[in-house]
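WARN retry 2 of 3 for item q-0093 after timeout on previous attempt; input resubmitted unchanged.
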Amino acid sequence: MRIEDEWPSTHPDRLQLYSLNTPNGIKIGFALEEIELDYEAHRIDIMSGDQHKPAFLTVSPNGKIPAIVDPDGPGGKRLELAESGAILLWLAEKTGRLLPKDPIARLDTIQWMLTQVGHFGPMFGQFGHFHKFARETCDHPYPLDRYRKESKRLLGVLESRLSDGRAHLMGDELTIADVATVPWVEVLGGFYEATEELDLPSFEKVNGWVERVTSRPSYERGKNVTPFG
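OK item q-0093 returned
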């Protein structure tokens, strides 16, 4: 079985994206639009359980979006890849875009991308869950208070990083660190409706950075590749 058995491809010579526009899904749509790589998008409806279908699990064993199939992977071989951080790293290496060539700057970029994967995403996601969805099912204040405090601390980490005049997390140029992180910051005041809860206006540098990155046409296009509705 292949994933194409469930989601047929119209353009099999192109990179295939299997996703939904959650923050993790937006990362890859944004990256693909930014680097202008031809691709074909397939909507994975996680609300109806598409991510658990056997065909999807052949590419994403953990049953998580996003995932890709690149017919032109390393050595020209077919590449099946899940996990947004791994996908971003492959796209950057494949195209020579969004990742500095200087070894130290490259590792610093990967470090900040992995900070999103290991900290910003999980903590912001848990905060959003308890803030927006679990108030009636969990009336104990501890979980929400814990994730609120940690989310504000992490926003402070970003604020400090951006307080030296840099336009993006690595400096003047957009990188996979920005691509990975900005959808998770945008969702806080957007879908999670937590502007007041997290005092988002107080993070002035972060807000300016979010505005710069999300105003790129590639972000708007990438954000709407595989919509919920």
